[in-house]
Design goal:
single chain, alpha/beta, Maf protein, seven-stranded mixed β-sheet, 6 helices, 26% strand, elongated
Length: 194
């Protein structure tokens, strides 16, 4: 199989690449994840995933690798994006908004095919339902520190799963890489997955 540059430092995405048996190298894009204008989560994540791929292409200065993968995940509630909390207080506020409700998790994946010089970008949206949380629940979770560097102030693959009463859609997409859709992207773009 051909190596893929993963334009992400995400440990979860790396774990999924290993699970799929994909040879890869890590080259975080380090782009700003800020966005401008009024856009929906699908537009934002597609734009950011594509920008991550383009940043790697820029850094390679004309050397075109066979494959680059960029991904971005956003948490959306009532039309607003909940990014990574800036502080413990910010995380508590986010958890307070999410508790007892459904919210949307959107992950976009951009795959660059160096032979064709094309980028395929696809988006997967899932719904997560949080249980009602007591102040003690929130305090316990904040004390774990797991909320740090987590969009929406939680990691579904960690202790936050104690608060999740349901999901509809792609669990792996909620974690950060929708495996079914990514596998189909690889196949559709001619990746030699054998």
């Amino acid at each position: 199989m051909e190596p893929i540059i993963l334009a992400s430092g995400s440990l979860r995405r790396q774990e999924y690449f290993r699970l799929m048996g994909l040879p890869f190298s890590i080259m975080p894009s380090n782009i700003s994840e800020c966005y401008t204008g009024k856009k929906n989560p699908q537009q934002i994540t597609k734009e950011l995933a594509s920008r991550k791929v383009n940043r790697i292409l820029e850094q390679l200065q004309g050397r075109s690798p066979p494959w680059i993968c960029g991904a971005d995940t956003a948490i959306a509630l009532d039309g607003a994006i909940l990014g990574k909390p800036a502080s413990r207080e910010d995380a508590a506020s986010m958890l307070g908004k999410l508790q007892g409700r459904d919210h949307e998790v959107v992950t976009s994946v951009a795959l660059y095919n160096g032979r064709e010089k094309t980028t395929d970008c696809r988006c997967v949206a899932s719904t997560v339902t949080f249980a009602p949380l007591s102040p003690d629940d929130v305090e316990w979770y904040l004390n774990t520190g797991e909320w740090q560097e987590a969009a929406g102030a939680y990691k579904i693959q960690g202790l936050a799963s104690c608060f999740i009463t349901g999901i509809k859609g792609s669990y792996s997409g909620i974690v950060g890489l929708p495996l079914r859709e990514f596998y189909v992207m690889l196949r559709d773009n001619g990746y030699p997955y054998t």
